[in-house]
Amino acid sequence: MNTFFCSDSSRQIGEKLIGSATNYETYILVECPPPWTTEAFDSKWVPSNLKTLVEEVKRAKLPIRFLLIANDKSHKIEQTTLLIYQKQKGLNHGYQKFEFFLPNIEQVAGTVKKFLRGRNTDYEQQKSSTRDILICTHGSHDKCCARYGNPFYFSAQNTISYLNLENLRIWRSSHFGGHRFAPTMIDLPEGRYYGALEQDSLKAILTRTGDINCLNQVYRGWGILPTPLQILEKELIIHYGWDWFNYKVAGKIVEQSLDNNTVLAELTFAKNTGALYTCQAKLVKDESKALQIKSSCNAQHNSVVVQYTVASLWLEAQKMVSLSA
């Protein structure tokens, strides 16, 4: 009997989580009651037209992530929630949300196709400023998400209820990567990823209070940024504290060596006052901290995980900008 749990192994060897958030232009979240099969879109409630669309997007290597989501009401209601989160250009806080209530899951594929082509859909877009918290409970994909994701999801419901937070929904989600960091979470519309969570760190993230240094243990990175920029952004979070989450940010890789061992990364951010700053950092792959690890419970072989470290950092004030947009 295989008693190996990738999440336990990752914690035991002290793997750092930062830089493990995946980078997508668009998230498409489809409400669909569990149980979900190993490959979520092979599940019995997923219609063939939606499965075909997911396969076409995958083949075309488009930067789009499809996920199944569900909550405790999903199997009781006569409608399907479709959430589309799209990356914004320029300085921003994260993703823009588009929400639709469809009569059933059969309408999802057609609605998504029209949306991606920039055409009007047959269904009215819902206006809401709701924050969507996704917790991976996809145990058929990796058993750590059942072992740690499921109990965390139930405890998180109690935490949210206790904190009396409004405009916040919590969802079970199919696999979105990094199950060795279970329990894992995406906070949308920001698109920030977290892992190895406990209820205390969840409370800090949801309320943006408490010791900011807790993010050193649980923050995986911001999904709008490539890996090296995720590492730089975490340094700035620790420096500026919870205020950072209110800043508008844009990032880019300025230079990258051919072997990817060194990266010159740049983040531009606007404070609430309108002051604009540019931060550049040289990031270097630290081979001395490379880890041999099984990336999932079912992995046959070890993978090598190498982290970037910030070798040098420059911060420069720019000018005042209008933040009315």
How does the SSE layout of this entry go?
Layout: H1 6-12, E1 26-31, H2 48-59, E2 64-70, E3 80-87, E4 95-102, H3 108-116, E5 125-126, E6 131-136, H4 143-163, E7 168-173, E8 185-188, E9 192-194, H5 199-207, H6 215-218, E10 219-222, H7 227-240, E11 248-256, E12 262-270, E13 275-293, E14 303-320
Parallel strand pairs: 1-2, 6-7
Antiparallel strand pairs: 1-3, 2-7, 3-4, 4-5, 6-8, 8-9, 9-10, 11-12, 12-13, 13-14
Give Rg in angstroms. 20 Å
Distance between the termini: 57 Å
Please, how many helices? 7
CATH homologous superfamily caption of the largest domain? Glutaredoxin
Q: What's the total count of β strands?
A: 14
General description of the model:
The chain is of the alpha+beta class and 325 residues long. The chain folds into 2 domains: 19-217, Glutaredoxin, CATH 3.40.30.10; 226-320, Nuclear Transport Factor 2, Chain: A (Roll). It is 23% helix and 34% strand. It has 7 helices and 14 strands. It has helices at 6-12, 48-59, 108-116, 143-163, 199-207, 215-218, 227-240, and strands at 26-31, 64-70, 80-87, 95-102, 125-126, 131-136, 168-173, 185-188, 192-194, 219-222, 248-256, 262-270, 275-293, 303-320. Helix 4 (143-163) packs across helix 5. The longest helix is centred in the middle third of the chain and has 21 residues, at 143-163.
